[in-house]
Write a structure and sequence with these properties.
The chain is an alpha/beta fold. It has 6 helices and 7 strands; from the N terminus they run βαββαβαβαβααβ. A 7-stranded parallel beta sheet has the order 3-2-1-4-5-6-7, with helices on both faces. α2 packs parallel to α3. It is globular, with a radius of gyration of 17 Å.
Length: 245
Amino acid sequence: MNKIAMISGVSAGIGLATARLFTENNITVVGMGTRESPDNLPDKNFIYVRGNVSDKNDRENFTSTTINTFGRIDILVNVAGVAPLQRSDLLDMTEDSFDRVMDINTKGMLFLTQAVAKEMIKNEEDNKGAIVNISSISAYTSSVSRGEYCISKAGVSMITKLFADRLSEYNIPVNEIRPGIIATNMTSKVKEKYDTLIENGLLPIKRWGTPEDVAKAVYALVNGSLPYVTGQSLDVDGGFHIRRL
């Protein structure tokens, strides 16, 4: 029987690349995104649910659609995330911007994971499921022009540790991936900035990352290859995290 995966933020970028890789490997995906009719979604083993992870009713619909259709959830990949609508100095950051970013990137992820974890615990197998949270190098890297984003991703790191600890008795690994500079819609507005930084040696691997780079790491964490790993943060960042002299 195919494993059943839920992926938030599936409309584009990392979420879409992960959904494609999963379905190519016979994992059935229920994906949620905010777009009405996204392009290039997988044409087999895939169901699309429109919704916003920050909305309680949308999260409940996402989970219940999966359970009502397939009777189980084996994998959760929390991808949905946003940057601030406008980059502002930390001293000028607004509460509205903070609330929007935190509601989607942190609060929404937390409570979707809570709901799905309760369903995974019901699975009869010894290996009841696996959860992967997509964070960012911003979880530990200061960007004072988008402080709310950094704070939200630091929160994801703690969400990962908490659920890894709580769900360990059920043999449900929970891990985090910290993507670096990935070519997505979110980074397209600052492409020239990062092109220059990469060319000048910011990254040991001197290229942009791709959504597919991240998707492959997600797949490795959920396909049974790493059964003794939980609460781990995996940097998919071209070596950005290496401190160099």
